[in-house]
Amino acid sequence: MKKLIIPILFLASCSPKYTRTIYYSDNVKKCIKNMEVLEDFVKQDYLSGKIPKDVATNYWLILEKTKYSLTKKYNKINNIKDDK
């Protein structure tokens, strides 16, 4: 978990003009929200030319898979059946 928090905090601090709330919580929904905020940071950095497309794609892939895993965990905890 520490390995995940450090990059999130680092990327969040790199974009001071875009203020978003980063949550630290055991709450799965807040963790999913953090992934969405991080996706926005990556998109902004890619569109402004700060990171190349292949790096942005790698970040998006990891974020997408992490969000999916967290969503499955949330659904399991709350007894929500997957659509698949």
Describe this structure in words.
- By secondary structure, the protein is mostly helical.
- It has one domain (2-77).
- It has three helices and no strands.
- Helix 2 packs antiparallel against helix 3.
- It is elongated, with a radius of gyration of 14 Å.
* Derived structural class: mainly alpha
Largest sheet: number of strands, sense, barrel closure? none
The share of residues in extended strands comes to: under 5%
SS element count, helices: 3
Report Rg. Answer: 14 Å
Determine the mean pLDDT: 80
Shape: elongated
Kindly state the percentage of residues in helix.
Answer: 55-70%
Number of strands: 0
Helix-strand string: HHH
- The N- to C-terminal Cα distance equals 28 Å
| Residue runs with pLDDT of under 50 for 5 or more positions | none
Tally the structural domains: 1
Brief descriptors of the model:
single chain, 84 residues, mainly alpha, 3 helices, 68% helix, elongated
Secondary structure topology:
Blueprint: H1 2-13, H2 28-47, H3 53-77
Helix pairs in contact: 2-3
Short recap of the structure:
It contains three helices and no strands. It has 84 residues and is mostly helical.
